[in-house]
Amino acid sequence: MNSEQIEKYSSAITLSDMEIFVFGELMFSLVLANIMSPIIWQWRELDCFKKLAGKSSYKKLMRLKQFIIDEFEFNLDLETWGLTSRTKELNRFAKFISPDDIAKSNALFGYQGDKYYFDVDIRRHFGLDKYDSDIIPYWKTETIEAMNAFRLKDGYETAAGECVSLSALYAAAAFIVCQIPLEDIYMILTPLHSQNFIDIQDGVLTNNRRLVTKTMWFNGTTISDKAQRALRNENVTILAHSSGYVHCMYGRATMSKKAYTHFSQRLGQYLSADINSLILANFLRSHSEYQKHFQFCREHRGQKKYIKAEVLFHYEHGSNFRIADETFGKLLVEVSDEDYSPYKLSDRICCEQLKSFIDYEKIDIRTDRGAEAMKNYLKPFVPDVQQFVKSLAKFVHTEAKLPSPDKNYVPNNPITLSVNQSREQIIEYMQSVRGDNTTADLAFYAYRDMESCDWAPFIKAAVERNPVSIQMTDSMSIEDVYVWLEQMKNVSIYDGKRIAGPDEVANYKTGDGLEKAFLLANIIRQRDPEQDIKIAVDNNDVLLEGADQYRFTSSKGLKKLVNI
What is the domain range of residue 342? Predict the structure, then answer.
């Protein structure tokens, strides 16, 4: 490999936020690595999924959501994988992308976000504000094995992962467990978030551990408002798909223009809604400051009765029923008679009346004509009518800031997997196409398949980008580190001939002997960069030779002579 290739392929081992941003293939390579892993395939055998055999993919997806909520924690500990420096990372990637462009699009290198993010102090929210010097977190994405291994880490009772890890997990599990075709899954990366758009029914967004249907997107609840944050306020930096990717910074796209156009249209439909009674109620729920200008009307025993909007929303808050949906009638029954008025309040408009006006006039609030008509109609009731109409228009339509479609589309061979294939058939197919598909080839490096991969990228990553093991052993002598490693369990978090990196061993306090040897090599190299190190792997026996010799036992069944 040349220097640029080894930079990309070693990045498939460490999968930092920065590495994924620079090398657009890596995001879907991680998904494919998770698909090849045995862990998610084992989920299919669980009773909670087996009993859904024959059910729709949508129903399985809803069950998957609960499983992930139960089994995985959202991890926002930015220092899980140690610290690096802006200078080091910017120098490393200078030949691929300029520092100025990186700063515009990456949260660790100066990105602040638009006005919304300044208003909510988003860097403080994510804990980024304390990194105001050259030192920054080595913000890293985990494979399913590393996510599962959080169960071994102090302070965690379940598996865990940050947003990029969770989006890759959801994409792989949607394919394996829910049998959703891979081509219906689109990965959306923004500077501060990663989520997926799953193209079934009206569309479903994954959002950390949760799912957001189109109905939920417009329900006006606090949790939905938070789920909207990235697509409403951030630029999409990368769109990744089985057919390729589109990157905001690169003029060349490997996804087909047809696939990108289809995604843009489907996402646009998901992010837009017509104003009906339910959407209007949802808007007032989300923007409670406008409730004082509205009232609801109901008929009871042939008589019309009226109730202030804020009073009805107060009832809704403590109820299982919701305004304007199929449970609305039951909610109205819960309202005390004394909270109803027999006459219409003259300074408030009825929601039902506004809905009738919108239908009769065929109002499209996104057009100048529709917005003006709405303002004129509401002016007697809503003092700041211009802001009201602007907020309502924003509520019913989000324009995602996608990468420009004006790209040089140079599609590669798409990854074509079938939901009917077995895990073994998928791995065999992936092996057959990796020579012609970079994403497939990189997937084996993210998968850590040391039997079929060049070892150089793993070695480079192991001794250059594993700061946790260095920091954790800072006060130990080399002999003490060796004793510490020998006292650990000799069990890898990866099965077969796949190996963990030094920081995975350090964080989870477990590792195969070969993995421990690489951790020790990382420590020795950091303390004495001029020291030559040799690791001889002969099936069960691992010998590390430097100034001294250290022996480990491996069950990986590999044979290799490594010189560092």
Answer: 277-396
